[in-house]
Amino acid sequence: LLGVFAPYLIAILVGCFITFLWFRSAFLTPANRDAAPISFIVEKGWNPRDVAYKLEEKQLIKHWWSVYLINNLRNRTGATQTTVFAAGEYSLSAAMKPTEILDALVNGKMITHDLAVPPGSTVTQLPELMERTTLVSALEADSALNDRALMANLEIRDSFEGYILPETYKF
Length: 171
Prior knowledge:
Layout: H1 2-28, E1 38-42, H2 48-57, H3 64-77, E2 88-92, H4 98-106, E3 114-117, H5 126-131, H6 138-145, H7 148-153, E4 167-170
Antiparallel strand pairs: 1-2, 3-4
Helix pairs in contact: 2-3, 3-4
């Protein structure tokens, strides 16, 4: 009796093994075990599919649908309720498993940057201080600090002088 069903049994076992390998590759294996962390920015209003596409585009994951599917399964089981991720900058690596990347995004483990404005600082010194955050160049910061339309929008008359207080700002 076993002899008649042996080919079918072998085919089923091989199919199960191949499915296991595929599942492990798609959901449990990092895209690149040797990758260094990179900055990944989630824009305001991105939904899980947008994030998944960008993760694949940045080569942080192999397949966009793996993170998307894991997130949907977690939502259906009540493990998380994430339809939109918090906008911000994250430190992610292709050496992370797709589940670890999703956990970092769901838990909002964002990178924060400090801008220390010492007492006595003037607006002319701010561009150099802002450049140290690596988010903007001194030229971009200077341009923003002298932008008349921005000042008018914020109801500031002539200058940001006196509006930016000595403090360590985290963003």
